[in-house]
Every structure is written in C-alpha cells, then in structure tokens.
Amino acid sequence: MTAYDLNELPVTLNAVRAAAETIGGAVLATACNQSRTLGEICGCNIWLKFENLQFTSSFKERGALNRLNALSAEQRERGVIAMSAGNHAQGVAYNARRLGIPATIVMPVGTPMVKVENTRRHGAEVVISGATLEEAGAFAREHGAAHGMTMIHPYDDPLIIAGQGTVALEMLAAVPALDTLVVPIGGGGLISGMAVVARALKPSLRIVGVQAELYPSMYNAVRGAQLPMRGDTLAEGIAVKSPGRITTEIIRHLVDDVLLVTEPQIERALATLISIEKTVVEGAGAVGLAAVLAHPGDFAGRNVGLVLSGGNIDTRLIASVLTRELAREGRLTQLSIDIVDRPGQLAAVSTLLGDAGANIIEVSHQRTFSDLPAKATLLELVIETRDHAHLNDVMAKLASANFKARCT
C-alpha cells in the first residue's frame, strides 16, 4: 500500500454514500454477526457479513442496481449486456427485470449450472460463449456494440465499485471496533469499494484481499509477480485472469496485502462454515475464512470482518466438498484389505471393525482385477471413524489380527 490522496481516486466515499441511497430498500442490509466459535478456532475476534443471504445470494446486486439506475431512458430501452461467471449475471438480470430493462448475459463455458439456471429464471437471455471470463467479455463487447446495448462491467466501473463499497459502510456501522477486513478478490470491485470506505472512515484499518492460488491475477498485478493462472478452482467466482484497470489502481494504493489460498484450504473453510455457522457459501465466499485459518499469526487478537460474498454453489459440489473434508479429518476412509477367499473372512473383519467402534459405509469384493493369488480376494471398504486417532486405533487392531489393511 502506498500513500494516496483519496480525492484523486475514481471512486470516493461520497459516491459510495450516494450508491447506498440509490439501492436502499431494494438491496438487503445483511447481518454482520460475530462468530465466537470461529474466533476461538482462529485466535481472533471474527464477524461475518452474510452477503450470501441476498436475494440472488451475492453482493453483486449492489453494484448492478447502482449502475442500472444510472442509465438514460434510451439506454434502458436498448437494453444491457454483461459477462459473468454467475453472480454478476444474476444481479444484473434480477434488477434489470425489476426496472423493465432487457438484459443479455454472456457466461463462459463451465459456469456452474445453478448460476446459469438462476440467471435465466430472472428473465435474462443467456449466451454461453468463451472458455474464460475474458473470452466471454470479448464476445459481450462485440455483441453489445452490434445491438446498441450498454455494457454493465462486473467490476471495472466506478458505479459498480461504489455499489459494492456499501458493504463496508454497513460493516463499520454495525461493528465500529473492526480493525481488519478480509475480502475476496476476483476482478477487484468489492475490495476496491470497501477500501475506499475503510480508508476514509477509519484510516488505520487493515485491509487484506484474498485470491485463489490458481488465479493470482491481482496478486501478480500489485506485487509484480508472474505466478501462473490455470485449472479449475472451487472459487470460480473469483477466477479472473485480467483484473480491472480501475480496481488495480485502487487496490495498489489502499489495500495492505493480498494473500493466496489453496484448493484444500478453500474446501476446509467452506465445510467449516457449513458445519459451524450452518450457512452455505460458494468457494469464492469462503476464501476469507480460508486465509485466516491458513495464516493465524497475521490475525491473532484482531477484530476481523469477513465477507461471505456469495452462496451460489451446486448441491452436488457441496456434497463432494463435505465428503472430502471428512476424509481429510480421518472420519471417512477407504481401506483395501487382502483376505483369504473363504467363508467367514468378511464376518471376521466386520466384527473386528464393529468392536473397534468403526462404521462400515460401503463394502465390495474384488476377485478378478487384482494381482493377488487366486485363493485370495481384495476386500474394499469405506469406514467411518471419529478422527485420525480413532482411525489409527482401528488400523492397529486390523494389523494385530493379521489383516493386511491399507488406506487408499
């Protein structure tokens, strides 16, 4: 972060306050509640801003509505176009329908189906085009220009940024004692708007951005790094290869640090929020907690505000994440056991596991596709245990009974 005159920025505190007036009553002022349990786990005081509880399950409604309200009558008649991996799409589609504005949304291939269907449900025309958000954006600009539509950019627009900044207005009003904000970064619209507010109202407040390690675009931009961007991230909502010009300028001058989190860290945070807070977030919405869990020393003893930026995630993906987390915790394990192919062996293993307090979830025999002798068979089990210590005890009991068991 470098010293900077806030009045020279393309977005000001007054612009954010004007946005709050514009969207007031139409966008939910979500709760900002303390989580004592997460605070105990992380060694700091934690407040959660539940933007996943907006009508479209994302903070994106704020900027979208602020931008749409600024359109002229002619622009409204011609309609708008936007590119989005999902949440901006829904924010634009929902508010455009409310205002009677035709909307076309271009979404990249691979966008979660829940986000595609929700966008269509809000009345927008959805076009699937491009392998990345950037390719979808190129198509949107070309298509919009050809049809006289106004482009509603997901993050690199002062009115969008001002709308997103209203999140910080609400957080600091609800919890004046906050001394740290931890905010997801994709294109940078949310953290840019929040940073403008935070620096104006409480200059000492620490502002930390978080990106998925697979897509460190803003990290590269502000640190001068050249980390690669690739692959499928659970946090597809912030998988942006080209951050905004306006947002990069604001972040470079107002944000203290940008942290990266791995996919297992994001999964752990998402599962933790479901388990402890009973709230569903998408991958992008979990990266703030992921960063605090991964870097406890950076936040120890501080009053930390986390933005749960969105909750649009497929139920199948939730199930996968929760199951994988159970496996990491030693609560769900797949075992392979070499046994003699004769009656009673399965019963013996089952009895041993039952006596050890393990629960059998799945069981199968493999006689054909195995390199074991013809008189042997491979027994494959999925078992449930309390934790790693319990699992180790179960493995020890199997070994003492001369069963060759291994985790697979």
UniProtKB/TrEMBL annotation:
EC number: 4.3.1.19
Keyword Lyase: yes
CDD domains reported for this sequence: ACT_ThrD-II-like, Thr-dehyd
Cofactor: pyridoxal 5'-phosphate
One GO molecular-function entry: threonine deaminase activity
Source taxon at top rank: Bacteria
Ranges where the ACT domain occurs: 334-408
Keywords, in A-Z order: Lyase, Pyridoxal phosphate
Reaction(s) catalysed by this chain's protein: L-serine = pyruvate + NH4(+)
InterPro entries the UniProt entry points to: ACT-like_dom_sf, ACT_dom, ACT_ThrD-II-like, Ser/Thr_Dehydratase, Thr_deHydtase_catblc, TrpB-like_PALP, TrpB-like_PALP_sf
NCBIfam families referenced in this protein's UniProt entry, alphabetically: ilvA_1Cterm, PRK07334.1
PANTHER family: L-THREONINE DEHYDRATASE CATABOLIC TDCB, THREONINE DEHYDRATASE, MITOCHONDRIAL-RELATED
Family listed: Belongs to the serine/threonine dehydratase family.
Official protein name in the record: Threonine ammonia-lyase
Classification of source organism: Bacteria, Pseudomonadati, Pseudomonadota, Alphaproteobacteria, Hyphomicrobiales
